[in-house]
Amino acid sequence: MRKKKKIEILKESFGELKNDAFNFDSIGSYFKNKSNRESFHILSDKTCNDLDFEELFMFLDRTNSKVGQQYLYNKLRSIPVKSENVEFKENLIQKLLNDEQLRINAQLQLDKLNKTDAYYIASLFQGEYEKAPKWFFIVRLLSFTSLLSLLMIPFNAKMFFVFLGTFIVNIGFHYWNKRNLYKYLGSIPQLLKLNSIAAKLFKVAEFKTINPELKSSIQVIKQVRNRMSFFRLEANLQSELEAVFWGILELVKIAFLFEPLLLFGILNRLDNKRKEIESVYCFIGEIDALISIASLRKGSKIYCIPSINKSEIRAEKVYHPLIPNCISNTIKVNQKSILLTGSNMSGKTSFIRTIGLNMICGLTINTCFAEAMTFPRLRIYSAIRINDDLINDRSYYFEEVLTIKEMIDNASNGIANLFLLDEIFKGTNTVERISAGKAVLSALSKGNNFVFVSTHDIELTDLLTDEYELYHFSEVVNENKVDFDYKLKPGKLKNRNAIRILEINEYPGDVIEEAIAISKSLDQLTIENKHMLS
């Protein structure tokens, strides 16, 4: 693609969603192989599934390279202990938003790392290298024999047969090594490209400050550049002459076993340069991630930079970025946690997810989808989307028990947590569900933890009024229609419309009449039980 056309595309796509396929096995490989021990919190697969993390990532990701894509994925799943260099990064994001030439020049370089092979660069500092076998000394001996016999031919013609015999043996070792070489055919050439791009971007004053010490890492990788460039299995042949050249070169490689000797020599060198390779990788990843954040903000009508405090959650006109024309809501959480009531489809679960994903984005990329947001640095746990585990013979209820047990264990560790729950213990009977739900929600809300939970059990609203602020979502049932406004309202839900909705959908009259009669008797029984308890 011509450079001029590429620049036009970059200008037009800035602030827009990507139109790419997402291979999450490759995108997530850097994160999965990184220890992240120094992080404040790592989002679990369970929480990611609950909050539709992959869909969120596809919305947030505006990176230009596979390296930046992997780096951004890791950033979003690893909440840091503290937000470092926030002011510098915000200034650079603003610079990238305003200085189109700076951004385009960087994007043109990063785009060179947009081929699938670039996903494998991380394996060069995270994975185990192929080790030379114990008998590898034979390869060195055969290489030396080939060279010596070739040099002796002018003095003794019979040495040609020694050379020929050694060449035939070398064919086996040469093609044995192709299997090893194929493992690095993608990663090593991409490493060279990564280092070259890093060297160019490091010259830009705005980027140099990201890692002022990077020059030494770039130089270390350059030291093995010539050796790494020597071997290649494939060539883009343009002519018969070029084909002949690569054919002759392959024969030379076989004769002196250059490929196995060079490959294991290079791998040994790279094995000792993991730290430098990772530094260059992270430098490129950080630049691409910052451009991605700038593009995200460019395309967002409403966003804010959050404020981190110690004691409260406050969200003004917060919304879910994946829901088209999402209704925004405002909430303040201080002394108490939040208990939500409302009918199905009224917005309870979406609101819980809205809080969770905005916390994640705020704590990782310093961007929230709201007019303003304030919250503490929290560890995030969830029990929203729970399924039976048929492989391990676990029921829905047992899976939920294990998930919530982990929350209880973390609730008393002295670290602030955010617990997100939807319809707690709905896999069991009413009496035990309410009893266990009350006890668990009381335990989770203690200390400096925050809980957002939804329920259909109105009884819980009476049992938890001392520990939870009550909010609800409601709908308006007209003659033949149900309308949802998705607005968060204070207090518990007072109107119940489930049976009315059945009526609207033309359930048989006798079914409706029986349902209403049973509902009234159950309400009366509940009132009598309350009087007895009081």
From TrEMBL:
Any transmembrane segments, and where?
Answer: 135-153, 159-176, 243-267
GO CC annotations, alphabetized: cytosol
Output the SMART domains linked to this UniProt entry.
MUTSac
Task: Provide the species name.
Answer: Marinifilum flexuosum
Whether Membrane counts among this entry's keywords is yes
Q: What is this protein called?
A: MutS-like protein
GO terms under biological process: mismatch repair
Domain DNA mismatch repair proteins mutS family as annotated: residue spans: 335-520
Alphabetical keyword list: ATP-binding, DNA-binding, Membrane, Nucleotide-binding, Transmembrane, Transmembrane helix
| Gene3D superfamilies named in the record | P-loop containing nucleotide triphosphate hydrolases
Q: Name one GO molecular function term.
A: mismatched DNA binding
